[in-house]
Amino acid sequence: MKQNDPNYFKMNRIFKFIGYFLAVLFVGIVVLLASFYESDVPLADLKPKYISDKSQFVPVLGMQVHVRDEGPKSDSIPLVLLHGMSSSLNTWDEVVKSVAGRRRTISVDLPGFGMTGPNPKNQYNFVFYNEFIDSLCLKLGVQKFTLVGNSMGGAIAWNYEITHPGRLDKLVLIDAAGYPQTKEKGSLGFLIASTPVINNLLLYFTPKVLVRKSLETIYFDQNLVTDAQVERFHDIVVREGNRAAALEIFKGSFGKPLGKTNQVKTPTLILWGEFDYLIDVSNADRFNQDIQGSKKVIFSNVGHVPMEEVPGKIADELMNFVGAIK
Questions:
Q1: Max alpha carbon distance in the chain (Å)?
Q2: Contacts 24+ apart (CB under 8 A), 146-149
Q3: Sign of torsion, CA 186 213 66 324?
Q4: Alpha-carbon span 91 to 81, nearest angstrom
Q5: Could you tell me the pLDDT band of residue 23, with boundaries at 50, 70 and 90?
Q6: Residues 6+ away with beta carbon under 8 Å from 290
Q7: 33, 262, 288 from 298: Cα distances, Å
Q8: What pairing do the DSSP bridges indicate for beta strands 79-82 and 145-150?
Q9: Within a 10 A sphere around the Cβ of 293, how many other Cβ atoms?
Q10: What is the pLDDT of residues 136-172, one digit of tens each?
Q11: What pLDDT is attached to residue 117?
Q12: How many C-beta atoms lie closer than 10 Å to residue 238's C-beta?
């Protein structure tokens, strides 16, 4: 096209306009991302908010693991409580209060989460978490125990059971992972975290609005999505090293389970929220069918974390299942 051609000048103006538009768009995106950028928060800055007088840091596999070991130490078979993805031991707070004095409970911030922070070896799979549970229990002098797990913690729990026959007294699965997803809607945060390339942005951008939207999917009772809850979950996520650990998991670090759910032989209690949008309630039936002799309880009008929505009912079911101090 020649320069004296009228169409040349027209096309030139169009290309300039497109160039200006793209430049403005790029600047806008940079400004927007910059406004949401957050660096990792050191543990020292978070300790005053999330470390209580019941907390202790136990040296395990090169980490200082945040643990709360509560209840009667005379209990020879304690309950070891495992939280889910992007959560912390705080998810068990109200359940522990209800059980206090009746059973010993050991709640823990799993490696990669909470105040424990990342695994120095950057390993997040069933084999590693098996080793972690063994090492932690050895440090605490625990021989036999009941393992209780929610969501990801539930998957870790039943995989531990099938690779450690006879080690557990009982097993409790609360909205546990274990089967391929089918009709779950999921949360916005989990969707972004599972999307290749885009998920890398979560290393630097974790706005509270995203945390709030994710919590609105986790809880059935929306009154629980308070500013305080949003701040707690946000702080847990941005603790130094936790976002990188979570990204490893979302990219598939766990791999395949170490066996099948029908290999579980320990007496098992299955607890589930009726309106779990992350792991559908139909999974409770699958666990119940696959684990011979298991007991199933479904809670009406409850979401993915029954121990936070109906802690009293969870405590009652646990006590009915495990009984008095042994």
A1: 96
A2: 146/77, 146/78, 146/79, 146/80, 146/170, 146/171, 146/172, 146/322, 147/80, 147/82, 147/171, 147/172, 148/79, 148/80, 148/81, 148/82, 148/172, 148/174, 148/318, 149/81, 149/82, 149/173, 149/174, 149/176
A3: negative
A4: 10
A5: very low
A6: 260, 261, 262, 264
A7: 42, 20, 12
A8: parallel
A9: 10
A10: 999 999 999 999 999 999 999 999 999 999 999 999 9
A11: 97
A12: 18
pLDDT at position 45: 95
Domain boundaries, the chain: 1-36, 43-322
For residues 297 and 271, is the Cβ–Cβ distance under 8 A?
yes
Is residue 227 within 8 A of residue 103, CB to CB? The reply is: no
CATH hierarchy code of domain 43-322? 3.40.50.1820
Name the residue among 243, 300, 272 with its Cα closest to residue 114: 243
**Rounded percentage of the chain residues whose pLDDT exceeds 70:** 82
CB 154 within 8 A of CB 82: yes
Region 66-95 average pLDDT? 96
pLDDT (0 to 100) of residue 208: 87
Contacts for 155 with CB less than 8 Å, ≥ 6 apart: 126, 149, 176, 177, 178, 254, 257
245 band by pLDDT with thresholds 50, 70 and 90:
very high
C-alpha–C-alpha distance, residues 101 and 196, integer Å: 47
Please tell me the number of Cα atoms within 13 Å of 115 on its side-chain side.
24
3-state secondary structure (DSSP) of residue 291: coil
**In angstroms, what CA-CA distances link 132 with 61, 137, 142, 276?**
7, 9, 13, 28
Identify which of 159, 179, 169, 180 has the alpha carbon closest to the alpha carbon of residue 264. Answer: 159
Output the six-digit token pair for 249.
């998991």
Radius of gyration of the chain (CA): 23
